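Sample intake sheet
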Amino acid sequence: MLNEREIESCYLGQFIPVHYHHNMLMDQNRMHGFKSAIHYAVAPGAKVLELGGGTGVLSWFAAAKAEKVYCVEFNPDMVKEARKMLAMNPNGHKVEVVHADAFEYLPPEPVDIVICEMIHVGMLREKQVEVIESFKRRYLARFGGPLPIFMPEAVIMAVQPLQQEYDFEGFYAPIVQFQETTVVYPGTVELAQPAVYSIIDFSQPVDAQIAWEGKFLVEKAGSVNAMRFVTKNVLAIVPERNSTIDWLNHYMTLPLAQPVQVQAGDVIQVSFQYRAGGSIPSLDASIKVEVLYDSVAQPALRTAAYA
């Protein structure tokens, strides 16, 4: 029988269908960002480990310069798919696809870089934080320091209050939406500037519990009926150019159960908490929105929260 973590893993995405991984291959922003970062970070002759390899494409990027790449994948269908794909491509022979659980696997030798693209908006659903923290403990116990470089090196997360349209050909449906970052959506109105609520640095210990409370100055009158979550992955830091190589996830917009009417100049307070790797409903249930200052009348307290 499956244990509790294995059951949760099935639900949260470790066994997502093969075609989902094919869609990731067609995501040009993701592909170009990782290819550029891997090309920069992997030195000739390096040893590389990928945790959660999927089709093996990121391991293949690393194989262009690395001496050896260990590509760990838990889903047996994806193990077959990765081995098939890598056999079709030059340098594929330098990638060893290992059928193993990323929570338990350690390479047979020290590695220079660990790639882990178990990334969902807000670090929800997928187990990136938990996998990397587990890996750090086990790696240090076996090999000692220093730790390898992790890719992404860091994650910056922000939140923004919105007025979001939920009319679908006359059908009202307040649903979770994932929006491309380069597309303008007429039904999405930004009511305030985004605020950073968490920065994760994988070179340091990472706490899986995320909790935040912050204030926004409302810039436009409207109805705060949704919160947008933004996740920027810092794939590689390039100190010689004083820059980074980034990949921005699709925006995730969560509807509020009870919209809050606001005017320009109002101050609202937003709070929420969740566990990295947890479900989207767990974040939903914790969101609270309060109007702290009513610019038209007087200091006020109007609240929207999930029951």
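Comment: The chain has two domains: 4-117, 154-305. Residues 4-13 have pLDDT under 50 and may be disordered.
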